[in-house]
Amino acid sequence: MTQTYLDIEPASVQQEIEQFFYREADLLDERRYDEWLTLLAEDIRYWMPVVRNVRRDAREQEYTREGLDVAWFDEGIETLRQRVAQINTGIHWAEEPASRTSHLITNVRLLGAPEGQTLAANEVRSKCRFIVYQNRLEGEVAWFVGKRVDTLRRTDNGLQVRRREIYLDQTVLLGKALTVFF
């Protein structure tokens, strides 16, 4: 039987989540995308809104709204599998030759349920900061810096990402293609 998060000390949960994120980063950096997919729930929502420069009194409009506005990513498991399959063909124009990446994860914190919602006993939310470095060919370099809010689900096979919200801190992406996973 799967243990629930209500039964575990917060410090243990924090460490478990950090180790999960570090393992996930290694899988992505080592281009082990098929293994990475196993860390994602079948009902995952993988969402990255577009960030805009707004006036100080309009901060609620800084990121595009989920389900209402355009987003860099708004994907489920099938789309993520298709992206991985395309990269694995070896003929993906933006990933041949393959990029070298480094995912740095820091400032992991546990969060409660979103306002007006409850989490299942086998789910936990966290927030972290990230830097993703991408290098391709001799001189193509891209940096992605931001925050993530993840909802993780405990399963009999370990943690899985049920929801990932990715908030970039840059309004202009200088890379030639957005092919990295966060």
What does this structure look like?
20% of the residues lie in helices and 37% in strands. The two termini are 31 Å apart. It has 182 residues and is an alpha+beta fold. The longest helix is centred in the first third of the chain and has 20 residues, at 10-29. The protein has helices at 10-29, 33-37, 77-88; strands at 40-49, 71-75, 100-111, 123-136, 140-155, 158-168. It has a six-stranded mixed sheet with strand order 2-1-6-5-4-3. It contains three helices and six strands.
Q: What is the gist of this entry?
A:
This protein is α+β, with helices and mostly antiparallel strands. It contains 3 helices and 6 strands; from the N terminus they run ααββαββββ.
Key phrases:
182 residues; alpha+beta; 6-stranded mixed β-sheet; 20% helix
Please specify the SSE layout and strand pairing.
Layout: H1 10-29, H2 33-37, E1 40-49, E2 71-75, H3 77-88, E3 100-111, E4 123-136, E5 140-155, E6 158-168
Parallel strand pairs: 1-6
Antiparallel strand pairs: 1-2, 3-4, 4-5, 5-6
Tell me the β content: 35-45%
Which structural category fits the helices and strands? alpha+beta
* Spatial strand sequence of the major β-sheet: 2-1-6-5-4-3
Give the oligomer, counting copies of the same chain as homo and different chains as hetero: single chain
- Which overall shape is indicated by the principal axes computed on the Cα atoms? globular
Number of continuous helical runs: 3
